[in-house]
Design brief:
2 copies of one chain form a homodimer. Chain A is globular and about 50 Å long. In chain A, about 55% of the residues lie in helices and about 15% in strands. The termini of chain A are far apart. Chain A has 5 helices and 3 strands. At the A-B interface, helix 1, helix 2, strand 3 and helix 5 of A face helix 1, helix 2, strand 3 and helix 5 of B. Chain A binds a DNA duplex (30 and 30 nucleotides) through helix 4.
DNA sequence: ATATTCTATCGTAATATTGCAATATACAAT
DNA sequence: ATTGTATATTGCAATATTACGATAGAATAT
């Protein structure tokens, strides 16, 4: 085994899990924060921001892209990365909803 | 290699990544949703809700507990699990903050 | 005492992730 | 054309995760 069993879960559960998984590494959190901190998309520069080898950063960027959290456009020599707002919004709203559901009923609990 | 390099990232980045990682599996999302859906903490019952073997579910519960997302109290024969609200709030607020930071500056972008 | 029930842990196999050096690719500049 | 710069891909080793059967422990019921 070792492969996640996605079949038996809902699409929503799987898609949220995929987003969360993509965010489950400090380097990818750092990349996201950096893209947000800088005032626009970034052409180049990301590798220098992180304490990881270029190949490793490229891999993390690929995973973020696969998860739909960032997008990258070729901009001459380098590549211009920026946040895919929709995905971030999706996560934000999911947890907001969870929290509010919890708030309603957290009375009779441990 | 294969081990995440946490040393070079901030505590906040590491802790958010840990929470996200714990949520990066549909079974764990399903567990969380179930704990929220049911009106109080659950003693037993979780295994029957999931399409996974008992040992596997137990392992997922352990990971959620390690990440601080749920807590479990022994309740006679079985164990009473419920959501650790603080952790959920932490995630919610983190993404809310990210989103709002993004909203301010997403003008000059791809 | 014995059986039953619930949960955790151990052991193990399959697969995935992390990280990097080396190499490849693509464009830009000379 | 050659060189330099930026990024991706490949190949590999180390480690982590996922899943489950088997087993163990602890409380309950018979």
């Amino acid at each position: 085994m070792g492969a996640t069993k996605t079949d038996h879960f809902t699409d929503k559960q799987n898609s949220i899990a995929l987003l969360a998984k993509a965010l489950g590494h400090p380097a990818r959190i750092a990349i996201l924060e950096y893209l947000i901190k800088v005032d626009s998309c970034i052409c180049g520069d990301i590798v220098n921001e992180l304490p990881l080898a270029q190949a490793t950063v490229s891999q993390h960027l690929k995973e973020l892209k696969n998860a739909g959290l960032i997008k990258g456009e070729i901009e001459g020599n380098s590549i211009c990365y920026c946040i895919e707002e929709k995905a971030l919004t999706q996560i934000e709203e999911y947890f907001k909803k969870l929290s509010s559901k919890l708030a309603i009923k957290n009375s009779k609990c441990c």
